[in-house]
Amino acid sequence: MGEEQGNLKTATGDENLKDIFHSIRTTKNPAVINYGASWCRVCNQILPTFQELSKKFPKLSFIYADIDECPETTQNIRFTPTFHFYRDGERVDEMFGGGEERLYDRLWLHS
User: Fold this and answer.
1) CB–CB of 37/82 below 8 Å?
2) What secondary structure does DSSP assign to 33-53, as a single string?
3) By the 8 A CB rule, do 37 and 80 touch?
4) 40 is catalytic
5) Architecture of 8-98 per CATH?
């Protein structure tokens, strides 16, 4: 399932991201997806924090999806970065933009 770094997976394309969605729905494990883009300054600033936080919340699956690598599955994403939080296979929350403390608080809430 994409590249892995600790508890962080990177979606490698639309088919891979579809597999990840399917896995979230079927395993019902809590997950967070970070939708970003290589050209997005805020995305690049928050990504190292996202990687670090993946080690602090081992019960959560962390997924990074570049909207340019997964254009079909991310066409409804209007802002980068966007974070989607999943519990029991369903999306339960979303957060727009960066902010390390905001992200930490949301992760804590959903872990």
Assistant:
1) no
2) EEEE-TT-HHHHHHHHHHHHH
3) yes
4) yes
5) 3-Layer(aba) Sandwich (3.40)
For every one of its 111 residues, what pLDDT tens digit does the chain have, with 9 covering 90 and above?
455 556 899 999 999 999 999 999 999 999 999 999 999 999 999 999 999 999 999 999 999 999 999 999 999 999 999 999 999 999 999 999 999 999 999 999 998
Q: 37, 40, 77, 103: which one is catalytic?
A: 40
**Domain extent listing, the chain:** 8-98
Round the CA-based radius of gyration of the chain to a whole number and report it.
12
User: Of 11, 32, 43, 53, which residue is the catalytic one?
Assistant: 43
CA distance 21 to 95: 18
Comparing CA positions, the residue from 96, 101, 88 lying closest to residue 30 is 88
Residue 43 annotated as catalytic:
yes
